[in-house]
Amino acid sequence: MFQIVEKRKLNDSMTLMAVNAPFIAKKAKAGQFIILRVDEFGERIPLTVADYDREAGTVTIIYQIVGKTTMKLDQLNVGDALLDFIGPLGQASELEGYKRAAVIGGGAGCAIAWPQAKALHQMGAKVDMIAGFRNKDIIILEDEMRADSDNLYLMTDDGSNGHKGFVTSALEENIENGADYDLVVAIGPLVMMRAVVGVTKPRNIKTIISMNPIMIDGTGMCGGCRLTVGGKTKFACVDGPDFDGFEVDFDEAIKRGRTYFDKERAAAREESCRLMEGAKNA
Amino acid sequence: MPNMQMEKTPIPEQKPEVRCHNFEEVTQGYTEEMAQNEAQRCLNCKNKPCVSGCPVGVHIPDFIAHVVKGEYEEAFQTIKLTNSLPAVCGRVCPQESQCESKCVRGIKGEPVGIGRLERFVADWHMQHGSDKADKVPSNGHKVAVIGAGPAGLTCAGDLAAKGYQVTVFEALHVAGGVLMYGIPQFRLPKEIVQKEISALKEKGVEINTDMVIGKVLEIDELFNMGYEAMFVGTGAGLPNFMNIPGEDLVGTYSANEFLTRVNLMKAYKPEYDTPILDVKRVAVVGGGNVAMDAARTALRLGAEEVHIVYRRAEEQMPARKEEVHHAKEEGVIFDFLTSPVQILGDENGCVSEIECVKMELGEPDASGRRRPVEIPDSKFKMSVDCVVMAIGNSPNPLIRSTTKGLEANRKGCIVVDEETMKTTREGVYAAGDAVSGAATVILAMGGGKAAAKSIDEYIQNK
Ligand SMILES: Cc1cc2nc3c(=O)[nH]c(=O)nc-3n(C[C@H](O)[C@H](O)[C@H](O)COP(=O)(O)OP(=O)(O)OC[C@H]3O[C@@H](n4cnc5c(N)ncnc54)[C@H](O)[C@@H]3O)c2cc1C
Ligand SMILES: Cc1cc2nc3c(=O)[nH]c(=O)nc-3n(C[C@H](O)[C@H](O)[C@H](O)COP(=O)(O)OP(=O)(O)OC[C@H]3O[C@@H](n4cnc5c(N)ncnc54)[C@H](O)[C@@H]3O)c2cc1C
Ligand code: SF4
Ligand code: SF4
Ligand code: FES
Q1: Where is FAD bound in this sequence (chain A) (predicted)?
Q2: CATH number corresponding to B239-389
Q3: pLDDT tens figures, B184-208
């Protein structure tokens, strides 16, 4: 069992949790993920290692509440324990040797992008962090991202905070203004990552994106996480989750990502009804 | 006087029209009376041809003789001498190509139902026997076993019996390997696998789940932690795809994913959260046990029409005969000499059709089987909403890609000395599907046993 040692709400739908998992804490690197199971009946879901403390033996995850499992997870508190916590899985991001990087996070993607910005920054690269949110109420990790980058560009779709516009406009603007990026890291919704690649590919700036397909085992056994990269089948859990943005077939990934969409919407609706019921009865 | 009845004593089964809607075990097992009757068909041959057909050399006539006398616990102990998972093997061994293929009673009539008897004895023991294993005093040596499939569990059991302190590391959240995530409940109840595993734990074997070796700990670190030798039994879990257009469509599963969702993650039980698509017309591509399991699982999930699409002929199918027979009874449609060329999707990217081509048998290939060749202009389409690829698995890549000095061949199989199961890395042994590529439970166990013996010799002579 893996005990929760910290829980912090970041906004209405996102929570940070630190979990006691000494073996994983010893090994984890930026770009890797864990798979957890809340209880015996739960699904196995993948979440990025947002941070780790090798000494304290803890691993930090940041999750967005989107469906049944993340709702169940959010019911737990400090002192409770998770049934399974497996990792570190996937390849660590290859961030060595870059001089100037733009790290782009879209919404919840910031939770995954932040550790990469931090790692790049620690390796001595100059890092521009570009973080995009729908509006100011859902901004997360602002202090952390600011601390672990040279510049933070905060973008909101409606201009309610920071600059109005999409992350791609900030990226393009920086490039026009002479930012000579040798690396762009983009993490967020597939459409956002596709749009970033639309900016970087014509300019031939190396772009790493992080893919979030549906996963079960995370060890290369089920093939559920497969995607087409450079015309070849890859398994995101062992070959990724980072891939060369120029080579990913985004259209295919967008379709596959919807496999259980209807089922899960239904399950989540049921779950939230049940939780509300519980709250009413409490 | 032996019982000269030509056929095996029939074994009670759930009726096909009933069982294809539930996940309960299909074959219900012999009663004592039936077991007696079947055991009496054994001639107790002096030269024991049947034993040579069993990869672990179960003392077949001896255990059957005990059954005849009603000494079921003795029969069990006899089997246990060489086979640590009899309840599993009795159910899933391909007996027709192993022990039973060598039985003299099979020359005229049907062979003795060795598998059925083995199962009877193991089940009898589970109900009536006791597993108060005497814990062997520790010899102070530590061994790590990576992978809790039949190979790893057998190796762990044998070493524990010799006094080794054995720790098993398993990547998934439960131990059992394919026995838990692949082979379905209706063929091998998970409770049986877990009972076998509890018995191991009682012997003192420590099982650590949720540990992906190569990621959380590497083999070198395990050596540093004081493990003197290592056994790698990580199996062949990497699913193959055909690389035809449309394999990325929603509704195309690898058999591993399909079966894992249902078996390991229990998608068929409403109290579990695991989603699985609600499919009605399914094509399963392949002709092995995995394909049969996927097809029959699809039926039980409520599919109305399930096809097995196999590019060779019926006689060439590698699946256990009994499973093919069961699948047919349950209404699975077999399309032999048929090979998929592409999967087609609708506007949402969901599977809508599979296009296949008809084959005929040509000249024998390297394996001696007549090779299927395409019949020109024979393409046709079937309307389906799900395609399951069950065309084989390759060895798991995680260990070999993270362990220095561990050699693998072109197919990804770990290279070992076939007698000792020694790998190219000192102190590291391997067996099972990780070495042979996808094979059978009993071969994996045989390999695990051989490795345990070598590990013991290695440590004692160090
Ligand atoms: C390698 C990897 C790293 C990830 N890291 C993080 C992270 O750090 N923080 C975080 O909040 N989420 C992360 N995710 C996504 C997270 O796994 C899903 O949000 C989670 O599985 C949803 O589970 P659920 O049961 O709550 O929702 P479900 O009921 O399963 O799904 C609810 C909704 O989310 C969508 N969804 C389901 N699975 C995924 C998925 N894998 N990715 C994106 N959307 C999905 C569904 O289509 C549905 O609309 C990561 C995914 C991967 C593969
Ligand atoms: C659907 C299906 C049906 C089958 N039916 C039959 C049948 O009827 N009869 C028969 O004889 N055979 C059958 N087989 C084949 C048989 O199950 C296998 O040959 C056998 O299980 C191989 O045993 P193993 O111990 O080598 O590997 P596995 O059973 O594959 O076990 C390997 C274990 O290692 C774990 N692992 C992998 N990598 C790591 C890692 N890095 N760290 C830690 N753990 C790891 C895996 O999670 C797994 O639990 C079937 C196979 C399948 C898939
Ligand atoms: S272990 Fe398998 S092959 Fe050996 S006797 Fe038993 S059923 Fe036959
Ligand atoms: S060959 Fe058949 S009849 Fe002879 S001992 Fe073996 S099981 Fe009995
Ligand atoms: S999650 Fe199963 S292969 Fe990647």
Answers
A1: 62-64
A2: 3.50.50.60
A3: 999 999 999 999 899 889 889 999 9
